[in-house]
Specification:
By secondary structure, this protein is of the alpha+beta class. It has four helices and ten strands.
Length: about 200
């Protein structure tokens, strides 16, 4: 029997329409940014008025005094920003928490601070004459005689002196800062003895 070669046509390909890429679904607001929005940054003025003499120390002595005042480049008394920030950090820990303190003022090498402070500078043009407090240790609790070689002379800024500086922060943290400033009742050294009582206020520039 002869062989019959059957020629089969290849079956037609039925692929159907080319699939279209899926359209992206709109993102929800929470998916875009889950971090809390801190608001626009604003600038405020901080005013400090001394309610009693204050020793804003430089950490050094001289001119016959054991402890001199910190002074700016114009030789005027100054409240350095590092000192003010330290007081506000203490207040934040006492009022809120360690975590809130680090959120507001940062943590070394880890988080960015939310409040940027300048130092507080003297408002009046003429530097007020400083006052010198002298103190000495006593021989004992029931003996008021001064103990030898313990006399100390310390320079103070007089009561009534006013300082001003600035702070930049998110608008949403302004009320937090107001509470912290109210919490600070004294500045400088010798606060336990009543020195350095202060009134701190905040006003928008």
């Amino acid at each position: 029997m002869g062989q019959h070669n059957k020629h089969h046509k290849p079956a037609a390909s039925h692929r159907g329409p080319t699939p279209q890429p899926a359209k992206p679904t709109p993102q929800t607001e929470s998916a875009k940014d889950n971090s809390p929005k801190r608001g626009a940054w604003v600038r405020y003025k901080i005013t400090a008025k001394l309610l009693s003499d204050a020793h804003l120390g430089s950490g050094v002595g001289g001119q016959g005094l054991h402890a001199l005042l910190a002074r700016d480049s114009q030789n005027r008394p100054v409240i350095w920003s590092t000192h003010l920030e330290g007081l506000l950090r203490e207040a934040a820990r006492a009022l809120f928490s360690k975590q809130e303190e680090e959120r507001l003022f940062g943590r070394a090498g880890r988080t960015r601070q939310q409040m940027v402070l300048t130092s507080l500078y003297l408002v009046q043009k003429e530097s007020p004459p400083s006052r010198v407090w002298r103190s000495t240790a006593r021989e004992s609790f029931d003996n008021r005689a001064p103990k030898g070689d313990t006399l100390r002379a310390i320079e103070f800024v007089p009561q009534g002196t006013v300082f001003e500086g600035q702070v930049e922060l998110p608008e949403t943290d302004v009320e937090q800062l107001k509470r912290l400033l109210q919490e600070v009742e004294s500045i400088g050294h010798g606060r336990a003895s009543g020195a350095g009582r202060v009134s701190l206020s905040l006003n928008k520039i």
